[in-house]
């Protein structure tokens, strides 16, 4: 059974960059796309963007255009999310989620703290 | 972007009672080519990722208890819990997957009265 395994907790300085990975353990992404969703402390869910690993085609929410890059290494079934120019407002839990049509499988999340 | 709005923001219900959570989208989520409604419901408990409950507005995900049901059409949707159980305490989100960017409602916090 496929699980999404995310990289570990990160503590970053303002202005730095973040790279989080999401690996399909026990299988592959197949025809699914992989989305990134974040949740600031005490807040709701916010979509960042997604990618189809097989084709490498990515989409980004307008808010993150220019500082978000989502990439994939299909042979290793790993997707990456890189966010630059971090600010305190980027402190959140970052989730990857598999989507066929709907997001049916989620990683456990990567906690990111941005603090000087 | 499609805006998703939920009501109420929070509610407290007695055990065994019925729960109703509303979700409204700024555009119809019905895709007429296949007659599917591109609306999902998630449950999130503290310290856990969201869990898919309902997709296509009314189809229960495998393993989800049948006390959970989804309904609605076009722009107005409802998540119902027929008889509230202690383990249902959570925040519930609706989400559209008709178009990019995917968007979520602000969440409804459900507590026991």
3D structure, described in words:
The complex is a heterodimer of chains A (116) and B (113). Chain A is mostly beta strands. Chain A has no helices and eleven strands. In chain A, strands 2, 4, 5, 6, 9, 10 and 11 form a seven-stranded mixed β-sheet that branches. Chain A has a four-stranded antiparallel β-sheet with strand order 1-3-8-7, with no helix packed on it. Chain A is globular and about 40 Å long. Chain A starts with a strand and ends with a strand. The mean pLDDT of chain A is 96. Chain B contains no helices and 13 strands. Chain B is globular and about 40 Å long. The N and C termini of chain B lie far apart (36 Å). At the A-B interface, strand 5, strand 9 and strand 10 of A face strand 6, strand 7 and strand 12 of B.
Low-confidence stretches of chain A: none
Summarize model confidence as the mean pLDDT of chain B. Answer: 98
Distance between the termini of chain B: 36 Å
Number of helices of chain A: 0
Helix amount of chain B, in percent?
A: under 10%
Strand content of chain B: over 45%
Secondary structure category of chain A: mainly beta
Name the helicity range of chain A: under 10%
Multimeric organization: heterodimer
Layout of secondary structure:
The complex is a heterodimer of chains A (116) and B (113).
Chain A: E1 3-6, E2 10-12, E3 18-25, E4 33-39, E5 46-52, E6 57-60, E7 68-73, E8 78-83, E9 92-99, E10 103-106, E11 110-114
Chain B: E1 4-7, E2 10-13, E3 19-25, E4 30-31, E5 36-37, E6 39-44, E7 51-55, E8 59-60, E9 68-73, E10 76-81, E11 90-96, E12 103-104, E13 108-112
Parallel strand pairs in B: 2-13
Antiparallel strand pairs in B: 1-3, 3-10, 4-5, 6-7, 6-11, 7-8, 9-10, 11-12, 11-13
